[in-house]
Amino acid sequence: EAEVAQSPRYKITEKSQAVAFWCDPISGHATLYWYRQILGQGPELLVQFQDESVVDDSQLPKDRFSAERLKGVDSTLKIQPAELGDSAMYLCASSRDGAMNTEAFFGQGTRLTVV
Amino acid sequence: AQRVTQPEKLLSVFKGAPVELKCNYSYSGSPELFWYVQYSRQRLQLLLRHISRESIKGFTADLNKGETSFHLKKPFAQEEDSAMYYCALGGYNKLIFGAGTRLAVHP
Hints:
Shape of chain B: globular
Largest sheet of chain B: 6 strands, mixed
Oligomer: heterodimer
């Protein structure tokens, strides 16, 4: 069964360093989401792609976060410089299309700890 | 603005008891509503969506537009239902989630 793949699973980085996360969506899925989940809270949408285009990045802290999906397939989320408050689970999800009644499939996430 | 509210962080019940996990939403258009579930050490996955009007693992959810609610119900809880449950709203080309409710079913 096809799954969304994310790497790394865990990342520990020092404050002010750069960090990057990678996501490979299910083949053929046009929509890709990056969410941040702080402990005890629900997933918060950071950025949404439709193919290679950004559909929504209103909650992405653009001074330090960037996301790209160059060929409309896999995606990278980068943080530079990392801050203590960035410690969280970063979830990637994909769906067949951008229709709002379409199921989103989630990866296992990358747990980031900033020290 | 769209918003999802799950008022309970934890719901603790005994096996065989009825369960209702509350979800209220704020959205000006016609919402697409979902319940996602995360079992221990597993990834977040779809449980059910309102458009399908289906029962999954004994769970049902009815959209009440008047009360802007989409509560998740099950008449008889099982221990394997213990998990985190997230209500989600699709609208304005976004999929947003509530804070989640942890359901603990005790033997």
